[in-house]
Design brief:
Residues 229-407 form the 3-hydroxyacyl-CoA dehydrogenase NAD binding domain. The chain contains 26 helices and 19 strands. The chain is α/β, with parallel strands linked by helices and 656 residues long. The model is unreliable at 632-656 (pLDDT under 50). Bound molecules: 3-hydroxybutanoyl-coenzyme A (3HC).
């Protein structure tokens, strides 16, 4: 009988998709298995009825790794293109970056590429006595699907290197003790579902769904109006990214600039964004061409007469924005939504000179706007419910996650994270090495440390908004001269190839040791090192000194009702700041640390280093009353355990 080779996916009523590899006898990863996996993961990620994904292998074996026959074919033909692209497309983009909780259910064996697939999942459950290893060196190759990186991270460098260099496999029991396996199936499955990671990911999942419910907007019987043509003012980094996001969802876009040189630049940026998606296999050439054909560059407002929405994305200059809003109010039709992509400025100030306050709204995208999924919708007390609903619908249509927030300086996300870079500056001025700060924060789980993030955004923006923040939140600002000094020394970050790091095409950012003289200059000016000597801090203290002030500001955001619910801030921190989803978002994480502990640490820090760390009223109240910051979601888990073929078919389900 012919072998049944392929990848299947079954989605249960519980919303769990079970993806199964079938390639007897060891479920080796042949080309059709890899393409099948890509197809199924793509489908599972896209389907709204899929809430979580389980990856497993048929016949009691997870996978014996990449199909060794392919190596033989390559050796015979000399054709290396027979090797499929897996590491980025499948392992990183579709699996690791999947926003749906993804669990590997391992039985029998997970070797080579098999174990690498399991390690790309968010958690691993294994049956007792399963064999786990990376035996690639026995074949004269190295683990090629990211195992060299992921295994040492999970089991520690020494053990990881030992397993790879000696091709030594281990049992699932040992894997469990080392942290490679999160739970041993059957015995410990409940533990896994109740693990912090599972709780955090499930929290984010449901928190994200909750963002689409906005009282007095989504529950009053309004229907979103169609958005066929949108104008974007400003073709810079943000404007071109926003235009790209709209075009990708078949929305006609007018891109307006002030002169033909800037306009051409903006159009070229959109083209480059689309080409980037094509080269990464995320968009077909055809679709890119179609999207680009929907773009029209303009230098005046003539064609604004029939637009449904304008999104202003010019520099953060209050007078300029006020002028633009006055102009668009006059030229656009009365139904047209007047949105600003400002990241900081009060929308009431932007719309001050207009008579259209009900249709003024913030559409705050995150850079790069065609890739980042968060859309912060900022409403003022005058913004109409219809306008908010329309923007929410547009956000969803362009595959963003809209989170509706209130109007204040920095809104929910930038305001919450404004102490992030300030705390980092304080630490550096206190004598801590800046590259260490970045590395501690990335080990915590954020993709970029505060200094690399500053480099990426460009340091000019920090200076542009500094005064606005100082005016609003001056009582709790740490004023560091470091950014000014950095700019003075010709370092604007990635934009001009130099910041704290050196940026060269095709290579990773390299720490620039010559920036340390700039840091020294800043330390002299601030003169805050106790006794003129650098402070000594542990990695844990670095995390606390950087992230606890962020939690503190989040408490103020909650207290002032800037977000509808605390979990909105978790979603926003995950999607807007890439706060690790497996920690459940900023406030969920804060609750796992404990509001009381955070409060007491901040209190002590403020006694030593001043008002920047002063605990907020809200945090103090929660801490002293022994309350959590996020009102826990009222979900419980339901388990459906092993089925006869021992592929587990589990589910956790929200039961409100
Ligand atoms: C990108 C990645 O990092 C690269 C990789 O993954 S490279 C591959 C890494 N994996 C390995 O090296 C595992 C190699 N396989 C083994 O060690 C053993 O076969 C095993 C432990 C999986 C099973 O052992 P055992 O039960 O004794 O069965 P065994 O007779 O060896 O193998 C059964 C059949 O599966 C085949 N097979 C096993 N692993 C395979 C693989 N990875 N690819 C293709 N075929 C494989 C064998 O050739 C054999 O085929 P046959 O029945 O036609 O002779």
């Amino acid at each position: 009988m012919a072998k049944k080779i392929g990848v299947t996916m079954e989605v249960g009523n519980d919303g769990v998709a079970v993806i199964t590899i079938s390639n007897p006898p060891v479920n080796s990863l042949a080309s059709q298995i890899i393409s099948g996996l890509k197809e199924k993961f793509q489908e599972a990620n896209q389907r709204s009825d899929v809430k979580a994904i389980v990856l497993t292998g048929n016949g009691g074996r997870f996978s014996g790794g990449f199909d060794i026959n392919v190596f033989q074919q390559v050796h015979k033909t000399g054709d290396i293109s027979l090797m499929p692209e897996v590491s980025v497309d499948l392992v990183c983009n579709l699996m690791e970056d999947s926003r749906k909780p993804l669990v590997a259910a391992v039985e029998g064996l997970a070797l080579g590429g098999g174990l690498e697939l399991a390690m790309a999942c968010h958690a691993r459950v294994a049956a007792p006595k399963a064999q786990l290893g990376l035996p690639e060196l026995t074949l004269g190759i190295i683990p090629g699907f990211g195992g060299t990186q992921r295994l040492p991270r999970l089991v520690g460098l020494e053990k990881g290197a030992n397993m790879i260099l000696l091709s030594k496999s281990i049992s699932s029991e040992e894997g469990y003790k080392l942290g490679l396996i999160d739970a041993l199936e059957a015995e410990s499955f409940k533990q896994l579902v109740l693990s912090d990671t599972a709780k955090a990911l499930v929290h984010v999942f449901f928190a994200q769904r909750a963002t689409s419910k906005v009282p007095k907007v989504t529950d009053v019987g309004l229907k979103p109006r169609p958005m066929k043509k949108v104008a974007v003012i400003g073709g810079g980094l943000m404007g071109s990214g926003i235009a790209t996001a709209l075009l990708l969802s078949n929305i006609r876009v007018l891109l307006k600039e002030i002169n033909s040189e800037y306009l051409l630049k903006g159009i070229k940026s959109v083209e480059a964004n689309l080409k980037g998606l094509v080269s990464r296999g995320k968009l077909t050439q055809d679709k890119a061409g179609k999207a680009f054909s929907l773009l029209k560059g303009v230098l005046d407002y003539t064609e604004f007469k029939d637009v449904d929405m304008v999104i202003e994305a010019v520099i953060e200059n209050i007078q300029l924005k006020q002028k633009i809003f006055k102009e668009i109010e006059e030229v656009c039709p009365p139904h047209c939504i007047l949105a600003s992509n400002t990241s900081t400025i009060d929308l009431n100030v932007i719309g001050e000179k207009t008579n259209s306050k009900d249709r003024i709204v913030g559409a705050h995208f995150f850079s790069p706007a065609h890739l980042m999924t968060l859309l912060e919708i900022v409403r003022t007390e005058n913004t109409s419910a219809q306008v908010i609903l329309d923007l929410m619908a547009l956000g969803k249509a362009i595959k963003k996650v809209p989170v509706v927030v209130g109007n204040c300086i920095g809104f929910a996300v930038n305001r919450t994270f404004f102490p992030y870079s300030q705390a980092a500056h304080m630490l550096v001025n206190l004598g801590v090495d800046l590259f260490r700060v970045d590395s501690v924060i990335t080990s915590f789980g954020l993709p970029l440390g505060p200094f690399q993030l500053g480099d990426l955004a460009g340091h000019g923006i920090g200076i542009a908004v500094k005064d606005i923040y100082a005016k609003a939140y001056g009582d709790r600002m740490f004023s560091s001269p470091l950014t000014e000094l950095l700019l003075k020394s010709g370092r604007n970050g990635k934009i001009n190839g130099r910041g704290y790091y050196i940026y060269e095409k095709g290579s990773k950012p390299k720490p620039d040791s010559s920036v340390l003289s700039v840091v020294e200059e800043s330390r002299k000016l601030t003169n805050i090192m106790p006794g003129g000597k650098p402070i000594s801090v542990t990695d844990k203290e670095i995390v606390e000194m950087i992230l606890f002030p962020v939690v503190n500001e989040a408490c103020r955001v909650l207290d002032e009702g800037v977000v509808i619910r605390a979990s909105d801030l978790d979603v926003a921190s995950v999607l807007g700041m890439s706060f690790p989803s497996y920690r459940g978002g900023l406030l969920f994480w804060a609750d796992t640390v404990g509001p009381k502990y955070i409060y007491e640490r901040l209190k002590r820090l403020s006694e030593t280093y001043g008002g920047f760390f002063k605990p907020s009223r809200y945090l103090e109240e929660r801490a002293t009353k022994g309350m959590l910051l996020v009102k826990s979601l009222n979900f419980s888990f339901q388990f459906v355990m092993w089925q006869e073929n021992t592929v587990f078919n589990h589910v956790y389900r929200q039961i409100y």
